[in-house]
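User: Please predict the structure of the protein below. I'd like the answer in structure-token form so I can feed it into my own downstream comparison script.

Assistant: Understood. Taking the following sequence of 143 residues as input:
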Amino acid sequence: MNLSDSITNAVMSLTSDSTFSVSQLVIDEKNFGNIITTLKSTYEIDVRFIKDKGDYWSEIGHLNEWYFLEDVFFAIGIRAIPSGTDFVEMIANSSTSIKDNLPLIIKSFDDKNSKETQAKIKAIATKRVMNMFNLDSAIHCKW
């Protein structure tokens, strides 16, 4: 089985009932094997899986804004973060978690809840970046 087929199989939990469809699958062997797979849904929720220079992650999209899957899950109260030992396994695990939590994800991005969800996600992302650069302690330093 080639990589394209493996990825298609890994997203099967999202595509098997036609809730999502693969809208983009690009495998760029020239640039470190970079990959992007984008799934469009019948809702205003999209999903993409990215491998860039050996790092890989998944994102949830809503109205052309993209958020790390982990940030979305944390913002809406899902504490089990999918992972994998390789890109295809991460896709399969993330797809299953998204499918299992799809009603909550859809509700979190509906007209009533979208602004609050996006604010929570942005606060989580800001905190993550500040922690990455250890800015919490730098802000409180006296020069």
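That's the full token string. The first helix runs from residue 3 to 10.
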